[in-house]
Task: structure prediction
Amino acid sequence: MTQTVRRLKPAEINRMDRDAFVRLFGRLYERSPWVAEEAWELRPFGGIDDLHRRMQEIVNGSDGGRRMKLIRCHPDLAGKAAVAGDLTSSSMAEQASAALDQCTPQEFEQFQRLNRDYKKKFGFPFIMAVRGSTRMDILEAFSERIGNSRETELANCLRAVECIAYLRLKDLVAE
Result:
């Protein structure tokens, strides 16, 4: 059974107290509530796109170490955290939407190998906004991106983080 969650109206966001705001929006960026904590100070927001833009400015304006920590908070796709049940509810739903919870043994092994090789090369996990993608789409992107430079992949991961946060935000707020 899926739970129906009432989506907030944009005006409701500006009336939220800090704790409620951080509790709700602190999960947009994987295990990084600091983005929502800083965003709350920037109210009022003109709507969902304004809130997202300001949160992204917070991420982009943070130092490289903090951005790297944000990237490293993301779980491997079809990785050990998924098997162990250690994903956030958002990550679990996103990975399930791409059927990553239904990998064949061969696909699972391929994901494990790519995760390991990618992290060894770049020092951070492969990040992709997987909603609307198939396992094959993800494996193809993984295989293509592993040939990139570290700088290119850092930018790709930050764009993916931005996309994931926006999709999660759209789940919470009615436009």
Observations:
- Residues 39 and 84 are 32 Å apart (CA to CA).
- The mean pLDDT is 93.
